[in-house]
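Bug #77: duplicate submission created two jobs. Keeping one. Sequence:
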Amino acid sequence: MSKQANRRRSIVVNKRTQWRIVVEQAWPAGLAVLITSMGMCFFVTQVMLEANELAVELPSLPWVLVAGIGFVVVSLAVIAYCALRFSHRVAGPVYSIRRTLQSFRDGDMDARVRLRDGDFLTDLTDDLNDILERAARAPDDANATTQATATFEDRARVEANTQAGADIEATCR
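Kept job's structure:
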């Protein structure tokens, strides 16, 4: 299967699950950035007030505040993107597993879970694919066992009939 054929069309495949993952992953880092930026804003504002009281002009200080706000916005965007990407690496395989199980349930005995490079849950999907493979072979194995049992029973019946015929023949002599 080509790389293009195994790409998901949307980065959000399970909105509820991915939202929970993003929030769980992003809030600690986002909170740290916000607290740090609030502290920076407080100190920059204090320096600006002190400079005004002393009638000292610090023309670059407001730009430090603007740069800090820009840093916060960019940092929060990067945190959100990384959390969303992480959620995609988890929710995507879950989506693929569910879709494969539905296909298998609907009679597609060749259905297997296929993940992309970098996806999580590979151990789970390997085990699941083994189970699906065994389940797909189970009817063939059951038929082979049934046929072997029937052949064994037929052979036993033929031997019993042959023995019974020999016993009757021996009795008639």
